[in-house]
Amino acid sequence: MIGLMILGTITYHMLEGWRFVDSFYFTGVTVTTIGYGDLTPLTDEGKIFTVFFAFAGVGITLSTIMAITQHYFQRKQKKFGRKMENDIVAYLERRKKKNNKKRRHIISGSRL
After folding, report:
1. Residue 90: which CATH number?
2. pLDDT digit string (tens) for 102-111?
3. Which terminus of the chain is more solvent-facing, meaning fewer CB atoms within 10 Å of its CB: N or C?
């Protein structure tokens, strides 16, 4: 994703003669499919580059966002899974203690 942003920024700066800030801005707007329309390529080379850059850039951007999101949710799922496991173990230990108390009471109250 970083390489994509650098490639777009440098290419638009060279092809369109835009400042680096404008080139970076247009690159970000293009690959995120926002497309405000305030900047547009005027040269034929810039227009052709934009078509191919948008196809590749949108795919790379979506893949990057999906990977980050998946990583985030996997971490949350592991954390939630450990918490659930600890809660289940604690519950089973409480049940075991409660059952042991009942058994002792029944055995001590019998006339054996």
Report:
1. 1.10.287.70
2. 555 555 555 5
3. C
Please report, as a single letter, which amino acid is at residue 84.
M
Return the pLDDT at 24.
97
Question: What is the distance between the alpha carbons of residues 54 and 49, in angstroms, rounded to a whole number?
Answer: 8
Q: Distance between CA atoms of 96 and 105, rounded to whole angstroms? A: 14
Name the residue range of residue 23's domain: 2-109
- Angle at which helix 2-16 crosses helix 44-109, to 10 degrees, equals 160
Query: Distance of CA 60 to CAs 23, 30, 64, 66, Å?
Result: 18, 12, 6, 10
Backbone conformation region of residue 37, classed left if phi is above 0, alpha if psi is from -120 to 50, else beta:
left
Average pLDDT, whole number, for the chain? 86
Q: Give CA 35 to chain center in angstroms.
A: 23
Instruction: Quote the CA–CA distance of 105 and 98 in Å, as a whole number.
Output: 11
Number of domains in the chain: 1
Predicted pLDDT of residue 81: 72
